[in-house]
From TrEMBL:
This is Regulatory protein TetR. Residues 36-55 bind DNA. Residues 13-73 form the HTH tetR-type domain. One of its GO terms (molecular function) is DNA binding. The lineage of its organism: Bacteria, Pseudomonadati, Bacteroidota, Bacteroidia, Bacteroidales. Keywords: DNA-binding. InterPro entries: Homeodomain-like_sf, HTH-type_TetR-like_transc_reg, HTH_TetR.
Amino acid sequence: MISKGDKSTDYRQQLSQRIIETATKMFFSRGIKAVKMDDVAARLAISKRTLYEIFNNKEKLLLHCVKKLKNEKDEHFKQFMKGQKRTEIDAIIEFYRFQMNRTASISPHFVSDLHRYPSVVSWMNEVRRTSDRIAQDFFQKGIDNGYFRKEVNFDLIWKFADVAMSNAIQSGIVEKYGVQQVFKNVTMLYVRGFCTLKGIEALEKMI
């Protein structure tokens, strides 16, 4: 027999997920700063009190939103990589397609607003440190398999790309051209630059 307490917990968990999904869409389309907690409550047709009982401020809600986005991306690539034997070029192309689909709905204001929230920035920096280690292993496998040039300093390239994106946000380039256009035009330029002839040929067959 299910107790009232269990039902209440289930409802709260379901509502929490609905809030995160709704807030993410609103943050994406309007930017973070422009979305008030009152707006989220109104969109969900719940009281402000109910919303604040689950997420007591916007920064906490935003942190849950970006964590969910990362979890979705991680799960997507986990399933993609175990589907069949994949190469490093397969992984790059799938990453490109995934990000192009996701960035299509992101307002430039969403990206530029993120730095306003310290706990989100701190979490993203921690994720970036983990990603650095994963990226190093990935690039080494690409070198071993003949897709990436062995003379390239991939640690430098990875860090430079990160700094370049940060500068693009701060300088207003992302706001002017849009997240998707910046990602589309810059990503393939980097990728082609560090691929061997074998890597470029594999790339050309897929794009």
